[in-house]
C-alpha cells in the first residue's frame, strides 16, 4: 500500500484551527491519500520544524500566526503575492529539494467576496479595521483590484499608518490612508466595503466575543461588510450588519477559499468547497 502523503500546519498557539477538518475532508471526498496534521511550533523552533518537514518529505505546509514572516525568509522561491505581502501562509515542496512560499490569504478573501456578493472592489471606497497580518493581505488585494480608496483604522494608529505606507511602496497607484479608531462613524459614512480584520467578536474570551469592531449605527445600509473572524460563524459584527441592511460576507467563506487555493497548489485538484464548508460549519456547531 502506498504511504499517505503528509500535509501540515505550523502555528503557535493552534488550539482553534479548522485546517485539519478542511483538508482531511477534501482528501476523503476525493479519495486522495493525504493526511493533514496540526503542529504547535514555537517561534524559536520554526527553523528546525521547517527543515524537518523538508527532510521527512511533507507534501505541503500551511504556516500561520506567528510564523508567516519568518517562513517568508526561509523558502527558496516566492509566489507573487507572498513576495508583495512579505508573508507566507502556504509552502510547496518543489523538484530539486526546493521550497516555494505562497500567500493565499488575499486571493481567498477576494474570491469569497466575489462569490458571496457578485461584486469586486474595483472603484469602491473601503474601510479596513485592524492592521495585522490579515489586514496586510486584504489591503494588498483591495489595492490590486483597483479600490478607489482604502482607509485603514487600528487601535494602534501607527500600525495603520505603517500599513498604508507599506502598500503604497509596493503598489504606488494605491490610494491608502491610516489612522486610529476615533470618529469611526464619519470614517464609515461613505464606505461601500467594510472589512473587520481585528479579533473583536472572536470566541474564547467573554468580553471579546460580545465586542464589535465598529459601532452598529456607523454601518451604512447597503454597504458590504466582511469579517475575518470565522469562529463563531455569525459574529456580532455580521449580525449588526444584517440589521443595518448591509450585505454580509462571514469569515468562513474566506477560510475555505484560502484553503482551497492551498489545496490546489499541493494536489493540483479542486477542493470540494461546499462539502468542506459544511464540515467546518458542523465542527463549529453552526450547521
Ligand atoms: P492577524 O494576523 O490575524 O491580523 P494580529 O496581527 O494579531 O492578527 O492583528 C490583530 C488586530 O486586531 C490588530 O489590528 C489589533 O490592534 P493592535 O494593532 O492595536 O494590537 C486588533 N485588535 C486586537 N484586540 C483589539 C481590541 N480590543 N480593540 C480593537 N482592535 C483590536
Give structural attributes:
alpha/beta; 12 helices; globular; binds 2'-monophosphoadenosine-5'-diphosphate; 6-stranded mixed beta sheet; 6-stranded parallel beta sheet; Rossmann fold; 2 domains; 287 residues
Q: Strand order across the biggest sheet? A: 2-1-3-5-6-4
Instruction: Let me know the average pLDDT.
Output: 96
**Can you tell me the CATH topology of the largest domain?**
Rossmann fold
Largest sheet: 6 strands, mixed
CATH class of the largest domain: Alpha Beta
Helix-and-strand structural type: alpha/beta
* CATH architecture classification name of the largest domain: 3-Layer(aba) Sandwich
CATH superfamily heading of the largest domain? NAD(P)-binding Rossmann-like Domain
The count of domains is: 2
Tally of helical runs: 12
Helix content: 40-55%
Low-confidence segments, ≥5 residues, pLDDT <50?
Answer: none
Pattern of helices and strands: EHEHEHEHEEHEHEHEHEHEHEHH
What is the terminal separation in angstroms? Answer: 36 Å
Beta fraction: 15-25%
Amino acid at each position: 500500500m502506498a504511504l499517505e502523503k503528509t500535509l501540515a500546519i505550523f502555528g503557535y498557539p493552534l488550539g482553534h484551527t479548522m485546517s485539519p477538518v478542511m483538508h482531511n475532508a477534501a482528501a476523503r471526498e476525493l479519495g486522495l491519500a493525504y493526511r493533514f496534521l496540526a503542529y504547535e511550533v514555537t517561534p524559536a523552533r520554526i527553523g528546525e520544524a521547517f527543515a524537518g518537514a523538508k527532510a521527512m518529505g511533507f507534501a505541503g505546509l500551511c504556516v500561520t500566526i506567528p510564523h508567516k514572516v519568518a517562513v517568508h525568509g526561509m523558502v527558496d522561491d516566492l509566489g507573487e503575492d507572498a513576495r508583495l505581502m512579505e508573508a507566507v501562509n502556504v509552502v510547496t515542496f518543489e523538484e530539486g529539494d526546493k521550497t516555494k512560499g505562497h500567500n493565499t490569504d488575499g486571493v481567498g478573501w477576494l474570491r469569497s467576496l466575489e462569490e458571496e456578493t457578485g461584486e469586486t472592489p474595483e472603484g469602491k471606497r473601503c474601510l479596513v479595521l485592524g492592521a495585522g497580518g490579515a489586514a496586510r493581505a486584504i489591503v494588498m488585494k483591495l489595492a490590486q483590484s483597483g479600490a478607489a480608496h482604502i482607509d485603514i483604522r487600528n487601535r494602534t494608529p501607527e500600525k495603520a499608518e505603517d500599513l498604508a505606507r507599506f502598500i503604497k511602496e509596493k503598489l504606488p497607484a494605491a490610494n491608502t490612508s491610516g489612522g486610529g479608531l476615533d470618529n469611526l462613524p464619519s470614517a464609515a459614512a461613505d464606505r461601500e466595503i467594510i472589512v473587520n480584520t481585528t479579533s473583536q467578536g472572536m470566541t474564547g474570551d467573554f468580553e471579546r466575543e460580545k465586542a464589535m469592531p465598529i459601532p452598529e449605527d456607523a454601518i451604512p445600509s447597503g454597504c458590504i461588510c466582511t469579517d475575518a473572524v470565522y469562529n463563531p460563524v455569525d459574529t456580532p459584527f455580521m449580525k449588526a450588519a444584517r440589521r443595518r441592511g448591509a450585505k454580509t460576507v462571514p469569515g468562513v467563506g474566506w477560510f475555505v477559499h484560502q484553503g482551497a487555493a492551498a489545496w490546489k497548489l499541493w494536489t493540483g485538484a479542486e477542493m470540494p468547497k461546499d462539502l468542506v464548508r459544511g464540515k467546518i460549519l458542523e465542527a463549529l456547531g453552526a450547521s
